[in-house]
Amino acid sequence: MDHAAVLAAYDRQIRRSTLGEGPGTVVERVGGVVRQTGSESDWNGVLWADIDAATADGVIAEQIRHYTAAGREFEWKLHSYDRPADLAERLLAAGFVAEPQEAVMVAEAEALPAGPELPDGIRLVPVRDAAGVALMAEAHLAAFGEDDAALSERLATRVLAQLTEAPDEIVAVVAMAGERPVCGARMEFRPGTGFAGLWGGGTAPEWRGKGIYRATVAYRARIAAERGYRYLQVDASDDSHPILDRLGFATLCTTTPYVYQP
Fold this sequence. Notes:
This protein is α+β, with helices and mostly antiparallel strands and 262 residues long. The chain has helices spanning 3-15, 56-70, 87-93, 130-144, 149-165, 212-226, 241-247; strands at residues 26-30, 33-37, 45-49, 74-79, 97-98, 102-108, 122-127, 170-177, 180-189, 195-203, 231-236, 250-260. InterPro entries: Acyl_CoA_acyltransferase, GNAT_dom.
């Protein structure tokens, strides 16, 4: 993989694009900023900004005004190659809170190995309706605990809207241990780009280390390749990073979410 070429494609097709991420969202370029605004259940935030030391503080203040007027918490998605060099410090000074850093990892869908055999008693079930979304939400709680209940509810609302209004732009799956959901994962397509994004994949603690996450990656990679998407992109946590690295994903850069609550 040509690291520089793929990073340039990611920057151009994902960060600078004004294609919406899901029904009901608006992605706009205002001055040097590409930002998305949607409902409370959608991801709201700044994808990319062409700023320097002279303009950064004013642009940050403008984004705060925009999202505060809309009544939305939002995220400034800071990447390791963004400028100015002290942008992180400027965001913190403006009232943003940094969340854990993630690695932006990419692999060619057709190059990934087939998934491992699932553990006995585990099966993968496609999610296509409200009942399936409810299982995904239950799997999210099993993986991350009741403290994440609000996020689980927002995620369920968003996924159901996507399945209902734009079903060609999402694939979702849940891993079932008998009748209990233990892992939920989804893939979101960006039409007009070469990238499909992998999201979710958190697994209930007692089922970790058994190949379930790897199986969901292989399941989604096969579908992406069939649909003509060349690359799979993941914002990987410290837990998923080593798994994806072993599968052949390459790290393009790091990204840190800076969150602002009005």
